[in-house]
Amino acid sequence: VSFTASGAFVSRHWYPPVPAARHWEELSGAALPRPPSFNDPWVSGKPAWLRALDPLTAANVTFLEEIHRLRLRCMRAVDEMVEALVSELDSLGLSDSTFILFTSDNGYHEEVHRMGSGKTTAFEEDLRVPMMMAGPGLAAGSKVVTTTQHIDIAPTVLALA
């Protein structure tokens, strides 16, 4: 990110996700999710800066769709890493006494509310943070639906330990 001497925003440098070579051709048919806010036609009640955005063009959507596929391809290596960890725990006989916690940041919004790729708004698409946990006594597929924060992770891990 670049700023002027007075602190004004100038530009942001962006680099595309680069998947592992073994995953480069995978997921070629993966479609960009299209939630109700996709290329939002209803901007009348939104902030002025958002109302000023033009609707995304077909070329914009094609670009964002390819970025989406690159991100999915990058996640394949993460999937492999988690699978290797679980396999190692199994082989060591530690699966029944080990908790695995996976979390991340909020990821990127794509195409919502006429915006391109980003993560800096207070819209729903930018707020959610994934967190998954597996371990003894945790029911597969169960979900916590209450609001949590990352500040809750340390006490939770301590309680499990």
Automatic annotation (TrEMBL):
Stated family: Belongs to the sulfatase family.
Gene source species: Volvox africanus
Start and end residues of each Sulfatase N-terminal domain: 57-161
One matching Pfam family: Sulfatase
Top-level taxon of the source organism: Eukaryota
Protein name: Sulfatase N-terminal domain-containing protein
Signal peptide: none
Transmembrane segments: none
